[in-house]
Specification:
Number of domains: 1
Largest sheet: 5 strands, mixed
Distance between the termini: 34 Å
Number of strands: 8
Structural class: alpha/beta
Radius of gyration: 14 Å
Order of helices and strands: HEHEEHEHEEEHE
Strand content: 25-35%
Number of helices: 5
Strand order of the largest sheet: 4-2-3-5-8
Length: 155
């Protein structure tokens, strides 16, 4: 297993987590496919979405895999009038991660981050470990602390 920025940060802060590896393919990088591959509930696998707010710049949202981000709610909680998804071509330069392997932990910069409040129904949830084929299993409160995030209604 190679260590990603996300894993290195968790280890450096001695945060309880588990790394789950699985076989990844370009055609199946979405959170629902990942849930199936790791044998977990779809709603427990969260995806990391990177957006650009009209006032604040880059904002990160972490939501359950099967749902869509409500852009109006996202704008409201982040202090923007509107937010839009960043282009895939910008993702690596902004975060240090690629599409399908974007973790909310260990990005190049500490962007404002919001986790959907449904995360709180899980004792453990899953987010990308920073590369395709790896997930981090973590307590939602610990994830919030590691990302300096807030819980919000995003869906």
């Amino acid at each position: 297993m190679s260590k990603t920025n996300a894993i290195r940060r968790l280890e450096a802060h001695q945060i309880d987590h588990e790394v789950i590896e699985y076989v990844s393919s370009e055609a199946e990088i979405d959170a629902i496919s990942v849930a199936r591959k790791i044998g977990e509930e779809e709603d427990a696998v969260f995806k990391t979405l990177v957006t650009r707010g009209d006032r604040s710049g880059i904002v990160v949202f972490v939501i359950p895999g099967p749902v869509e981000l409500d852009l109006k709610k996202a704008a409201g909680v982040s202090g923007n009038k509107s937010v839009s998804m960043v282009k895939t071509s910008e993702l690596f330069s902004l975060t240090g991660y690629i599409r399908g392997g974007c973790s909310p932990i260990g990005m190049k910069k500490a962007y404002p981050t919001f986790i959907d409040e449904t995360a709180l129904v899980f004792k453990q949830l899953f987010v990308s470990a920073g590369q395709r084929g790896m997930q981090i299993k973590i307590d939602p409160e610990l994830l919030k602390d590691m990302c300096n995030a807030s819980f919000a209604n995003l869906i």
